[in-house]
Amino acid sequence: MGPKKETKEASASAKKKDTPAATTTATASAKKTTKTAGNTTTATKVVTKERKEKVKSTALKAKQRVVRGNQLTRKRKIHTKPTFRRPFTLRLQRQPKYPRRSVPKRNRLDHFAIIKYPLTTESAMKKIEDNNTLVFIVNIRANKPLIKQAVKKMYDVDAEKVNTLIRPDGEKKAYVRLKADHDALDVANRIGII
Amino acid sequence: MTRVKCSKLRGKKPDELQKQLEELRQELNTLRVGKVTGSGGAQKLGKIRNVRKSIARVLIVTHQTTKENLRALYHGKKYKPKDLRKRKTRAIRRLMTPKEKSVQLKKAERRQWAFPQRTFAVKA
Q1: Which Pfam families does the protein's record reference (chain B) (predicted)?
Q2: For residue range A141-151, what is the model confidence (pLDDT) as tens digits?
């Protein structure tokens, strides 16, 4: 739309300008170089200059619009609901300039800390022989999956299930039933509880 | 087992130290089992304390060397981890630095320079 307008104006100005030199002055280019014949007065000269600048500016604006896109008229969003919810905005991830702690905290509840020692009471012995389970005193902050992992790591055995209880003296007892392909008695011998 | 000495530990590499730590922990485990089963006797029971303290020593050495290396790494940098910065006290950390305190108006600076405190003395 822009360029067309400009050419229209150019032609219009050409027409305006005038008849004697009409054919030569009519151009489609943005910059009008008009030759005024010798017989023009100052008045006409001023007009042409103004005209020139206006044409130039409209042409430039048109070019800019084409390049940049029309930013002067904004699109209005259509809201079809009466509520306004906060739109999703950009949330950047943290890029800390320095770690807050120089050394990350070490895990205090590792396998050695989880399993304290196995129980060797009579009832524990019975469990080993009859139910294929080992009985351990365990860190009170350990949970069943952790106990399972720890037993696996320390003694190389797979646990079928773990049952826990907290003794009245504040210690946690874990009954670790071993999988059928392990023999609790062998494992107990290996550990040192007999 | 002989006493683990810190001076000997400092010469070791970190993986060696880790390995030693694991060994010590295993030993502690077996000792505790022994305590429960009633084997061993006084000697074994006394060993428990040694092993515990040796584990502590290994951990101390590992931690100290890591911290040292980190301090060297961050030396001269603008942003250090908070535990590598000076501790002092909370209030002192929030005070103005000497440079910040010495900042003056340009006017005051010029005045000081142009009209310093003169001292005169009477010739005897």
Answers
A1: Ribosomal_L29 (PF00831)
A2: 999 999 999 99
Q: Cβ contact (<8 Å) for B36 and A119? A: yes
- pTM of the full structure: 0.66
Q: Distance between CA atoms of A18 and B121, rounded to whole angstroms?
A: 96
Instruction: Provide the domain limits for residue A133.
Output: 111-185
Q: Residue A105: closest CA among chain B residues belongs to which residue?
A: B63
- Can you tell me the distance from the alpha carbon of A19 to that of B99, in angstroms, rounded to the nearest whole number? 80
Interface contact flag, B35 A116, Cβ < 8 Å: no
Answer whether residue A155 is part of any domain.
yes
- Chain centre to alpha carbon of residue A13: 57
Tens of pLDDT, residue by residue over B17-34, are 999 999 999 999 999 999
Cβ of A100 within 8 Å of Cβ of B82? The answer is yes
In chain A, the N- to C-terminal Cα span, in Å, equals: 98
Express each pLDDT in A150-187 by its tens digit: 999 999 999 999 999 999 999 999 999 999 999 999 99
Distance from CA of B8 to the nearest CA of A (A): 24
Look at chain A and report how many structural domains it folds into: 1
Nearest CA in chain A to B82: A100
Interface predicted TM-score (ipTM) of this complex, two decimals? 0.77
What tokens were used for A156? 């190389």
Cβ distance B36 to A100 less than 8 Å, yes or no, reads no
CATH numbers and ranges of domains, chain B:
6-78 (1.10.287)
